[in-house]
Amino acid sequence: MSPTRYHRARRRGIRSGNALLEFVLTLPIIIFMTGVTIYMAMAMLTKQQAVVEARYHLWHAASGPWTPMKLEGWAPTGNLPDPSGGDMPRGSGEELERLYPEVFKPALDATTNFLARDYANRIWGNLPGRQHTHAERSFQSQGVMWNFIDHTATSDHYRDTSPWHFFDLDAWKIARTGPCKAIFEAFRDNLPATVAPHFKPTRDDIYNRWWHANDILSDEARIGSGGVVTAQ
């Protein structure tokens, strides 16, 4: 073998040896990156499942009725969502924020009457506006070396709605808690649930036609039958 070919073969051998050494040195990095890739794939799949679950619950709830309105006992101070509203708080959301300077504020500024302003605040606080769902999913990683990374994926999904229907916003129900409260309480004090049996149909008809108070009559019926009624 000529000296030139010998030196070439020797250089090739040195390069092969260096490649193997470099591979051994980078093997921990390759293993780590492989594990991270697997972990990220599992995390992305779990995140996608959480998003799908949140969207499903939100759009499923969107086809149903809204949460009960804030009626008796509700104060407009702070316009806080009703705790019983769950994931469908009234009087909140981007759609209402857009309408506030265009519709609500000019109407509110047009009067200084306390009862009118209180009625407007109550109507605004009872508008169905925002729906919100939260979904959370977890997954298991392989090996204890990945335990320092969070294994839980969460998703929050929001939907603002603008179409309001009669049963979503009942002005008479709101009026009986605001500007017409004194008149409504006069009916409640003088037409209690214990009126004479022959007058009760008339009393119930007044409650329903004037005040849309079927919810109150239903509560009275449950109390009369021994049921338990929780505060709205």
Poorly predicted residue ranges: 228-232
Strand content: 5-15%
Element-by-element helix/strand order? HHHEEHHHH
Instruction: Please bin the fraction of helical residues.
Output: 40-55%
Number of strands: 2
* End-to-end C-alpha gap: 99 Å
The dominant shape is: elongated
Number of domains: 2
Rg over CA atoms: 33 Å
Question: How is the main sheet built?
Answer: 2 strands, antiparallel
Strand order of the largest sheet: 1-2
The helix-and-strand class reads: mainly alpha
Structure overview:
The structure is a single chain. With about 230 residues, this protein is mainly α. It folds into 2 domains: about 5-175, no CATH class; about 180-225, no CATH class. It contains 7 helices and 2 strands, in the order H-H-H-E-E-H-H-H-H. A two-stranded antiparallel ribbon has the order 1-2. The chain is elongated, with a radius of gyration of 33 Å. The chain starts with a helix and ends in an 8-residue tail after the last helix. The model is unreliable at about 230 (pLDDT under 50).
List keywords for this structure.
232 residues; two-stranded antiparallel ribbon; disordered C terminus
